[in-house]
Amino acid sequence: MREFGLVDISRQELSHYFPEMRERLNNCQFNNCLHINEPGCAIKEAVVEGEISEDRYVSYYNILESLVEKLY
User: Fold this and answer.
1) Are 44 and 29 in contact (CB under 8 A)?
2) By C-alpha distance, which of 72, 70, 71 is closest to 6?
3) Which domains does the chain have, with CATH numbers?
4) What CA–CA distance (Å, rounded) separates 8 from 54?
5) What percentage of the chain has pLDDT greater than the value 90?
6) Is 16 left (phi over 0), alpha (psi -120 to 50) or beta?
7) Looking at residue 8, what is its pLDDT?
């Protein structure tokens, strides 16, 4: 069985790995938006409008929740 190492990315970087999100990141009101419940979030708006698949957003959210933010 092959083991895979953990990817070292921050919670703020995760959305950059989702192309449909990456193209909208500059439209969020806050530049540190995690796309969960921040006001003016372009990603959440795109999910509501059907421009981003809800399944993809749920995948993003589940990965986001699994990432532990390093405090150093």
Assistant:
1) no
2) 70
3) 14-66 (1.10.40.50)
4) 25
5) 75
6) alpha
7) 76
Taking the complete model, does pTM exceed 0.90, yes or no? no
Q: How far is CA 43 from the centre of its chain?
A: 8
Rounded CA gap, 55 and 16, in Å?
A: 17
* Helix/strand/coil (H/E/C) assignment for every residue in the chain: CCCCCCCCCCCCCHHHHCHHHHCCHHHCCCCCCCCCCCCCCHHHHHHHCCCCCHHHHHHHHHHHHHCCCCCC
Q: What's the pLDDT tens digit per position in 36-60?
A: 999 999 999 999 999 999 999 999 9
